[in-house]
Amino acid sequence: MSADASNAPVVYVALLRDLVNSFELDIAFLRHTDFENRTTVLIAEWPPRTNVAHPDPLHTVPFDGADPIFAAAESLDSVLTVCVDGGIADYRTRVESASGFVPQSLVAVPLIAGAATVEVLGFGKLAGRDWTEDEFNALRAIAALTTQVHTRVAAEERFRYSATHDEQTGLVNRGALLDYLRGRLADHTSGPVAILFLDLGRFEALSNFLGHLAGDEYIAAAARALTRDVGATALIARLGGDEFVLVLHGPSNAHHAHLTARTALDAIRLLDVPGLDRSRRATVGISIAHPGRVAADEALQRADQAALIAKVNGDNDVVQFTDSVQRQSELRSDIEIHLRTAIRNDSLVLYFQPEIDLITKRITAVEALVRWQHPHRGLLPPAAFIPVAEATNLAGELGSWVLEQSLRTLGEWATSLPDLDISMRVNVSPAQLVGAGFVDEVEKVLRRHSIEGSSLWLEITEVAVVRDIEHTRRTLAGLRRLGVRIAIDDFGTGFSSLSHLKALPVDALKIDRAFVADLGFAGGDLAIVDSVIGLAASFGLDVIAEGVETLDAANTLIDRGCTRAQGYLMSRPVSAVDALALLRVGTIDI
Ligand code: C2E
Ligand code: CA
Ligand code: CA
């Protein structure tokens, strides 16, 4: 009979039955060694017992504290014959209570794989029996054959496990998830089926920051927390990276899905990851799929698209797939397709937003902010395409375009206004900063437009800084040699980078507009703004506030000692022509 994982139990019973018949025995059994729990487990027997007690005293027997016969099974390395007499009381009691009789004569043959006793084949005879050497030889041969079956079955089970499970977390993998979803979404199955796509967010930056081992530990901890809190409600799969998928058991509606999404997000939020603070933002995309109407991969993709929109929009952690999500996803793919051409045929435009000294009202700098004049979709804000550029390796090309155009524009302004004394602030993507030859590129562009390095500020985010700290340090040092200065943008939203501030040649911090926005209102983010200003002072850095929309906010900033500011109160970002007009005046009254 050919044996594999699926029919192994049947094969074992058939084997035991044949052995009982041909050796004229009363019973035969096969026991398996569970090394992890140090127990021996009954996996087949002949003849089958009736009226077996629950729990069956013969089923799982721990080696520790077992009678000498069961204990011997742990490291049996040759055939053992036992004449069961009154001396082995524990053994007799256990066997008698489970089967109603005790064999007088017992033979145990080990099945050895590698150096371990993986199984034990046992035979018993009610009355005493003498065994011949030929019989022993036959039993050894049978044991060797059974070992082969065992090894094959175990390998098959391991293979099946690793083909359907994620190695790192032990959760179901993508293939097994899709199989499961195909079952749940088959025609005439009861539904709907709620699928939740969970993205941990900033995982890449995190593992670069904390090291890959810590990143792996974070994923494992997330998997454990999800299993603990939603494991009873949903099947949990890991797709790789920081992506998990939950499929709610049984028919579920959007309400169930949202509740589970909240529970899952709470489980993630409560994870204690040293060094990681408010920047951690997990998102969930929900898709409610109706059996017979949508294919498994399509349903999963919808949840993925919704999660992506949640991530890009930034104002909601949980987004359910709708027609509007569909349209936004289409826009994203459209952008992906057309962005490269847009960069090359100059469909991008730069807007410029002045920054002023709140005391003198003089314009001290302008920030170059990119937009895309899209042929059918109008003027697109950077949020609509910068994330796409970063996800598709276009960030470098886009960044080069911005650097070139912004410095050329500054050169043109300087020609019109010979006394112009302002800096150009240019945003830099993480990908540009880590790209080879960035310093050379900046040097060439400066020279091409006859601009001093000291007239250029580059704004980088904390995420960029932590990606590869040593490389970043070298790049920033190279830029400093050119006289170019560096500001950390959106300060306060990222990783706690105090140690980086000390290690890196940085010149200024820009207080994120989220903190500036509610300045002037009672209880606002004054504490954060104060601490950024204090931090800048103690490191000898400049500090600039962005997003100043009200006079109250401006006055609060002046009170706190921050006098450089940018925001709608002074001016929105404007075209190069309008910016030149502002620069001609030179000051902006507020
Ligand atoms: P950011 O560097 O923090 O730029 C400031 C953003 O705040 C700009 O949005 C600006 O229009 C907006 N803003 C300025 N003052 C106010 C205000 O008073 N209130 C409010 N609510 N908003 C204000 P924008 O132009 O949409 O740019 C968004 C982000 O896109 C930028 O944030 C920057 O991270 C990125 N970005 C823009 N241009 C570029 C670029 O050329 N390269 C790269 N890598 N990123 C860019
Ligand atoms: Ca900026
Ligand atoms: Ca900013």
Describe this protein's structure.
This protein has 3 domains: 156 residues, Beta-Lactamase (2-Layer Sandwich); 148 residues, Alpha-Beta Plaits (2-Layer Sandwich); 178 residues, Alpha-Beta Barrel (TIM Barrel), CATH 3.20.20. The chain has 21 helices and 20 strands. An 8-stranded mixed β-barrel has the order 12-13-15-16-17-18-19-20, surrounded by 4 helices. The chain has a 6-stranded antiparallel sheet with strand order 3-2-1-6-5-4. The radius of gyration is 35 Å and the shape is elongated. Ligand C2E binds next to strand 13, helix 11, helix 12 and strand 17.
Summarize the SSE layout with pairings.
Elements: H1 8-22, E1 27-34, E2 39-46, E3 60-62, H2 68-72, E4 80-83, H3 89-99, E5 105-113, E6 116-125, H4 133-164, H5 174-184, E7 193-199, H6 203-210, H7 212-230, E8 234-240, E9 243-248, H8 254-269, E10 283-289, H9 296-313, E11 318-320, H10 323-344, E12 348-357, E13 363-374, E14 378-380, H11 382-391, H12 395-416, E15 423-427, H13 430-434, H14 438-448, E16 456-460, H15 462-467, H16 469-481, E17 485-491, H17 498-503, E18 508-511, H18 513-517, H19 526-539, E19 542-545, H20 551-560, E20 564-565, H21 576-585
Parallel strand pairs: 10-11, 13-15, 15-16, 16-17, 17-18, 18-19, 19-20
Antiparallel strand pairs: 1-2, 1-6, 2-3, 4-5, 5-6, 7-9, 7-10, 8-9, 12-13, 12-20, 13-14
The protein binds ligand C2E and calcium ion (2 copies).
